[in-house]
Specification:
By secondary structure, the chain is α+β, with helices and mostly antiparallel strands. The chain has 2 domains: about 130 residues, 2-Layer Sandwich (Fructose-1,6-Bisphosphatase, Chain A, domain 1); about 110 residues, 3-Layer(aba) Sandwich (D-Maltodextrin-Binding Protein, domain 2), CATH 3.40.190. The protein has 8 helices and 15 strands. It has an 8-stranded mixed β-sheet, with helices on both faces. Helix 1 runs antiparallel to helix 2, helix 5 crosses helix 8 and helix 6 packs parallel to helix 7. The relative contact order is 0.14.
Length: about 260
């Protein structure tokens, strides 16, 4: 089994595991902070993924949301066991399992599974991106006023300033419509397959976006932070079909200049 098949199979199995906890009345929910949820499913799913990696690639490094880092070689598996825990805990379908493998800080393969939506997105560097076996590409919308975007409010959950409200106030009047799904990995995959024309958010972690970043780029999209720099460690995220990137980035930069 090659690495792409491994990541797909592992993500699908992790998705089945997460699904077994979905809408369970006895689901154990804890708080990492006043507004940051974690469930027993998050921990169980991450342990499962870590076990699969340790068994198959024992010399590699890992970095997961719940159990942190293990140090190995230059290859790092970045894991979000349930991206969208808030949705998951409320019984809403927009959550995902996100896994990416980076080598020397460059994404090589990635997979995002949305188990309730019955979808798997995956990508391999230089070879494209797929959803359920069908090659995907970004939208062709080239007018910001006709665009549908998505955002999230992780910054509000963690009570950080500046928050997303000034950006939302500036962007919303300039676009056709907005969606809020609650999983950055799904948002990025929706940009990749053309269901969204773009996505922005603040204060995200590497595990939130590591897989979705590669999927967007391999589908022909553009990914950057708000200063138009491309790196997967950024807290600020702007992902578009490419045609809208400059216009949307300009709006964001004008807002940011006021801080």
């Amino acid at each position: 089994m090659n690495e792409l098949e491994f990541i797909k199979e592992t993500a699908l199995e992790a998705g089945k595991l997460a699904k077994s906890y979905f809408r369970r009345e006895d689901l154990l929910v804890e708080y990492k902070s006043a507004k940051d949820l974690v469930t027993e499913a998050d921990k169980h799913v991450e342990r499962f993924i870590l076990e699969q990696i340790a068994k198959t690639y024992p010399e590699d490094s890992t970095f997961g949301e719940e159990y942190g880092k293990t140090k190995g070689n230059h290859r790092e598996w970045i894991i979000d066991p349930i991206d969208g825990t808030g949705s998951f805990a409320q019984g809403q379908p927009f959550f995902s399992i996100s896994i990416a493998m980076y080598s020397h800080e460059q994404a090589q393969i990635a997979a995002v599974v949305a188990p309730i939506l019955d979808e798997i997105y995956y990508a391999e560097k230089g070879k494209g991106a797929w959803c359920n076996g069908k090659k995907i590409s970004v939208s062709k919308t080239n007018d910001l006023s006709q665009s549908m975007l998505a955002t999230g409010f992780a910054c509000l959950r963690s009570d950080l300033q500046p928050n997303n409200i000034p950006f939302l106030n500036a962007i919303l009047p300039r676009i056709r419509d907005l969606r809020r799904f609650g999983s950055a990995a799904i948002d990025l995959c929706y940009v990749a397959c053309g269901r969204l024309d773009g996505f922005w958010e603040l204060n995200l972690k590497p595990y939130d976006i590591a897989a979705g970043k590669l999927i967007v780029e391999e589908a022909g999209g553009v990914y950057s932070d708000f200063d138009n720099k491309n790196h997967h460690r950024a807290g600020e995220v702007l992902a578009t079909n490419g045609l809208l990137h400059s216009d949307l980035n300009e709006v964001i930069r004008l807002v940011k200049a006021d801080f």
